[in-house]
Amino acid sequence: MNDDRFSYAPTPVVTRPKRVAVSGGAGFLGSHLCGRLIKAGHDVTCIDNFHTGRHANVAHLMGSDRFHLVAQDINEPLGDELGRFDQIYNLACPASPVHYQYDRVKTALTCAMGTWNLLKRAATDGARFFQASTSEIYGDPEIHPQAETYRGNVNTVGPRSCYDEGKRFAETLVTDFGHQHGLTTRIVRIFNTYGPRMHPDDGRVVSNFIVQALAGRDITIYGSGEQTRSFCFVDDLIEGFIRLMETDEEIDGPVNIGNPNEITVNELAQQVIALSGSRSRLVYHPLPIDDPRRRKPDISRALTHLRWSPRVQLQEGLERTIAYFNAELHGNSVAQRG
Ligand code: NAD
Ligand code: UDP
């Protein structure tokens, strides 16, 4: 994946700054997106209800007079006092199974009502709208790797349904609302992403394994550990977001963004142990209901339309993430660094 034809330079500082809203901007991905947009010279309004987001994630941006933090739930309409936006990124939604299953009705409604509220605002402002969707819309896939044309295999009434079906509905709403109101809309299907500022308690596999390894605790493998995922480093993902939002090319439908490097959960555990120098043991727990067996993105669309592919190899990304958690756990927080 280090093909030079698809390598990218950092986003240049823009000549015409835009007013950009990022819902969920105090979360893991949102805080990286806000940082990139501020660096590029835009005026950024971060809208977050701090359900899973943290002030520490955006503390390093608070000194900028182009960064505005608004504590608000997107299930409530945005007030006019926020001003007009050129672009709206909708990332607001808990993303880890532990968090999105905490209040399943709220998760489903955030995908529906929250997205609708932001779309209405985009229509009023004439803003371009970006929806963070997910590989979970493919459910437990019968097609491998998953291209955007695959329609998925999702349980409508399982513990993951509030999120999977919520995000599927949001894709429909964004698409139909965009057509009916003449809005430019973008939908990204994000595959498992990791990196600094993941919440240490959010239960996702990369953060769990690193925190367990650094603390010398048992590494918890669910099921046999032979299920696969494909992990994308956060910097690569955010580059893909910005390219998708900024392109004026006609993009019809969702675009997968993720790293096609597929590994088993067992292999991930071994790699985390090796890179962190840990002596943790592996322990096996039951597999959660409806846990997908395999997942790997087909990124042909992103290559063709955005000339995007991931650059950060898993080893480098894990080393950077381990360094982050090491500092967090030992009281030398790096959450605020760019
Ligand atoms: P996160 O939990 O760190 O961030 C979500 C943010 O949204 C948090 O700051 C939270 O407080 C905020 N939020 C939640 N509900 C809200 C509401 N009703 N109103 C306002 N703010 C609200 O998760 P993340 O990993 O940064 O994910 C961001 C987006 O990307 C989510 O939409 C998620 O579904 C999507 N996504 C992430 C991944 C991944 O691997 N990280 C994979 C697929 C999709
Ligand atoms: N997983 C695991 N141990 C953990 C956390 C997760 O083995 O401590 C597994 C989980 O069952 C799944 C994979 O790792 O098969 C990825 O889980 P995660 O919650 O990170 O993402 P998702 O299931 O949403 O892809």
From TrEMBL:
One Gene Ontology term of the molecular function aspect: UDP-glucuronate decarboxylase activity
Cellular compartments annotated: Golgi apparatus membrane; Golgi apparatus, Golgi stack membrane
Domain NAD-dependent epimerase/dehydratase: 21-258
Cofactors: NAD(+)
UniProt topology in membrane: Single-pass type II membrane protein
CDD domains registered for this protein in UniProt: UGD_SDR_e
A Pfam family hit: Epimerase
Coiled-coil ranges per UniProt: none
Signal peptide: none
PANTHER family cross-referenced by the UniProt entry: UDP-GLUCURONIC ACID DECARBOXYLASE 1, UDP-GLUCURONIC ACID DECARBOXYLASE-RELATED
Protein name: SDR family oxidoreductase
